[in-house]
Write a structure and sequence with these properties.
single chain; 298 residues; alpha+beta; Nuclear Transport Factor 2, Chain: A; Lipocalin; 2 domains; six-stranded mixed beta sheet; 6 helices; elongated; signal; NTF2-like_dom_sf; Steroid_delta5-4_isomerase; DUF4440
């Protein structure tokens, strides 16, 4: 775990998710979560001493990488370094549960996400034990574990609806475009086969591989056609719309760019269009919106 997550976890123990408590909320839970404002104020000020004061003197804090800090003094020093490294970080908190074991012991579980000033994100799951001492609630133990790592297949779930057979028929030109999306062996890529025919005669074939880029942390694709052209693109989602920004090379070596858009209209219908197209820097005609239907029987 990166050190600057420590203040984030502290604030998580008093998540705003619980800022509005139900009338039947146990007083122990209310007392612990009431620390919210104090944690937030101390965090905003970078007041390490105040934050460390919310830990019991003999508290234990175990980070997600297995390091254990014992005592509020050690935790305070670690937080001091955290604020030096993580200044300007933003915090997103999700508290899953707050359980009252006894009038003097409360267990809280949840997860945190910290976005650093440079945009880097880090997070962890946590379990915190609060104890009441001399009328004040203190953090006695804080244990973090890594967030589960999503597989490439899980990352592609947002576009898994494409899997299946799709068809677009232009009756005015007798042009038919058939696409077959399937999961590749292992389930970490989606493969698309495209077959273009004119009056039943093959005109063009194409292949596309859609996968998760762990470096860029986004979906990307690689497209090839039977004439020798190829392109690569990054996918950006906006609701049920995906913008695919592509750069490629045509069979003659010309450099191409395009912004293709796929919009899910229903489980059996989507729209495709292409704009901002260029060839060697020169503008090219856009491709107007085309509606594609799922093949019958699929």
């Amino acid at each position: 775990m990166k050190a600057y997550l420590i203040p984030a976890v502290i604030v998580a123990l008093a998540s705003a998710s619980f800022s509005q408590t139900a009338p039947d909320t146990p007083p122990e839970q209310i007392a612990v979560l009431a620390n919210d404002r104090a944690f937030e104020a101390a965090y905003e000020k970078g007041d390490v001493k105040a934050l460390a004061g919310f830990f019991a003197e003999n508290a234990q804090y175990t980070t997600e990488d297995g390091q254990t800090l014992v005592g509020s003094a050690a935790i305070e020093e670690s937080m001091r370094q955290a604020f030096k490294e993580g200044k300007g970080s933003k915090l997103a908190i999700s508290v899953d549960s707050v359980q009252v074991l006894t009038p003097d012991v409360v267990v809280e579980k949840g997860s945190t996400e910290v976005t650093a000033k440079d945009g880097e994100k880090s997070g962890a799951l946590y379990t915190a034990i609060h104890v009441k001492k001399d009328g004040k609630w203190k953090i006695s133990q804080l244990i973090e574990t890594p967030l589960p790592t999503a597989t490439p297949q899980e990352r592609l779930k947002e576009v898994a609806w494409l899997v299946g057979s799709w068809e677009d028929v232009d009756k005015s030109t007798a042009l038919t475009v058939k696409s077959e999306f399937t999961w590749a062996r292992g389930g970490n890529f989606i493969v698309r086969n495209v077959d273009v025919k004119n009056a039943g005669e093959p005109v063009l074939e194409g292949w596309q591989v859609i996968g998760w880029d762990p470096v860029e942390e986004r979906i990307r694709s690689w497209t090839f056609d039977s004439e020798g052209g190829f392109a690569g693109g990054y996918w950006t989602r906006e609701g049920d719309r995906w913008l695919i920004q592509e750069t490629g090379v045509n069979p003659d070596g010309g450099r191409t760019t395009a912004e293709n858009t796929i919009t899910k209209l229903s489980d059996s219908r989507f729209a495709w269009e292409s704009a901002n197209r260029t060839l060697d820097g020169e503008p090219q005609p856009s491709v107007e919106r085309i509606e594609v239907m799922k093949a019958k029987g699929d």
